[in-house]
Amino acid sequence: MISRLSKPARAEAAALAAAAVGIIVQIIGGVNYPAVPPGLVILLAAAALVAFLPWRRVGAVIGVLVGAFLLIGAFAAATGRYDLTHPGHPGAFAGTWVQLIAVTVAVVAGIAALATRNRALARA
Q1: How many CB atoms are closer than 10 A to CB 100?
Q2: Tens digits of per-residue pLDDT, 115-124?
Q3: Which of 8, 26, 34, 48 is the most exposed place for a label (fewest CB within 10 A)?
Q4: Residue (of 13, 20, 19) closest to 52 by Cα position
C-alpha cells in the first residue's frame, strides 16, 4: 500500500513516525510522560492512517491536522518552549527538536500531497 503513495505522502508518513521517535528520545532522556504517551499514540496512528488509508486525501488531511495541532502545542506549552531553548537537559532538548522538525516536515509534506492530489484530479 505504501508504494502507491505519492512522494509527499510518503514523506508525511515518515515525518509523523520520526516525530514519534522524538517522543521516545524524550522519554529515554528522562522527560516525565504518562505510561502510555498520548502524543506517541496519536503520531503513530496518524502515520498509519496516512500510509494505509485507502482514501489518500483523508489520510493527508489527518496528517496535516495532527501535525499542525502538535506544532501549535509545542509553542503553546511552557515546557515545550523551555525544552527547545535549554540544552542542559539533552534528552528533552534533542527529542523536542526532533519532534518539532519532523512535525513541520509532516505539515509541509501533507500540504504538498494534497496539492499533488488536487492537480492530478484537475488533469483527469
Answers
A1: 19
A2: 886 555 555 5
A3: 34
A4: 13
